[in-house]
């Protein structure tokens, strides 16, 4: 038996996605910039994918710019805004619990002379809205806040933050990293006052190396990749047609019976948490996102627990996949929510998709019940 419960790190592609990618790699492999039929056909695949994505967001097709994934989308949004608006101001406001692909960009911009104000959270990981809006100034050019935290699943009040920030400074650009939110909750950037929104394909059963940035029409953004002028000069380079078409299929499949998929993920999360909390000294740090459970197992190091579960073919994470590759530093998110020191290194993330089965969840529960007492006994010994 295998239980893959690390869907916030990546997901298995839908079979329909794999078929589309294979087709475009072997049959309809034209360059969309070519003027002949092969090129025109390739361009049609991009247009079809764009139409599907735009419909899911209730936005215009021209507001979608394809990227290589969430990291590039975040870089394009933040650096592109900073370059485009630096004459109007150099102040940026951002939450303190952002993904590394936002946080690292902020650190880069600070070295380039920008001033960044970081806003903390409460004990549930929810950003302090009043403080966020309070620090906005006439020279604040960008506000950035993720919609769903990638480690604990806290759902941030992005629409409220955006509305209040724009009321205080109408020229401010609002960016949201929606990589863990898109496909897990309804998102309509136009109604939510979001100007820039980052999405990654492989979090929703699409290909790795696929993603997009929603750019509200009229938003000033400087390109960070130059070349042949593809995508209306916003992101040069031959489009990755197989990945884009595959992403379009993934979006189409994700939003079929959307409410049922969300309900299923939420029920899998609830089943896991309720059963594991029956064990002594297990604590729940999870936010409201339907697909992320954060649990602390007192007395056992997360890394030891993770590899013990792996030996039983239960796959989870000790944090976000990007940050767990960096060396052993304690989670900034868990620190931010004030988690007890003895739980900081004892926390695992379990994450679900619409493909997650009851059997997988029950097997994971069974394995944790088997190995946790053993690991605790071994540590005491």
Write down the oligomeric state: single chain
Uncertain segments are 323-328
Number of strands: 12
N-to-C span? 30 Å
Approximate helicity band: 40-55%
Number of helices: 13
What portion of residues belong to β-strands?
5-15%
Q: Describe the global form.
A: globular
User: How is the main sheet built?
Assistant: 7 strands, mixed
Give the topology string: H per helix, E per strand: EHHEHEHEHEHEEEHHEEHEHHHEH
Task: Please state the CA-atom Rg, rounded to the nearest Å.
Answer: 21 Å
Strand order of the largest sheet: 2-8-7-6-5-3-4
Strand and helix map with partners:
Blueprint: E1 3-4, H1 15-26, H2 37-57, E2 64-67, H3 70-85, E3 91-95, H4 100-111, E4 115-119, H5 129-134, E5 140-144, H6 158-168, E6 173-177, E7 196-200, E8 211-215, H7 241-254, H8 258-276, E9 282-284, E10 292-297, H9 302-311, E11 314-315, H10 321-324, H11 332-336, H12 341-344, E12 347-351, H13 358-380
Parallel strand pairs: 1-11, 3-4, 3-5, 5-6, 6-7
Antiparallel strand pairs: 2-8, 7-8, 9-10, 10-12
Helix pairs in contact: 1-7, 2-7, 3-4, 8-13, 9-13
Q: Could you walk me through the main structural features you see in this protein, from its secondary elements to its overall organization?
A:
The chain is an alpha/beta fold and 381 residues long. It contains 13 helices and 12 strands. The protein has helices at residues 15-26, 37-57, 70-85, 100-111, 129-134, 158-168, 241-254, 258-276, 302-311, 321-324, 332-336, 341-344, 358-380, and strands spanning 3-4, 64-67, 91-95, 115-119, 140-144, 173-177, 196-200, 211-215, 282-284, 292-297, 314-315, 347-351. It has a 7-stranded mixed beta sheet, sandwiched between helices. The chain has a 3-stranded antiparallel beta sheet with strand order 9-10-12. A two-stranded parallel sheet has the order 1-11. α6 links the parallel β5 (140-144) and β6 (173-177). α2 packs parallel to α7 (241-254) and α3 (70-85) packs parallel to α4 (100-111). The chain is globular, with a radius of gyration of 21 Å. The two termini are 30 Å apart. Residues 323-328 have low confidence and may be disordered.
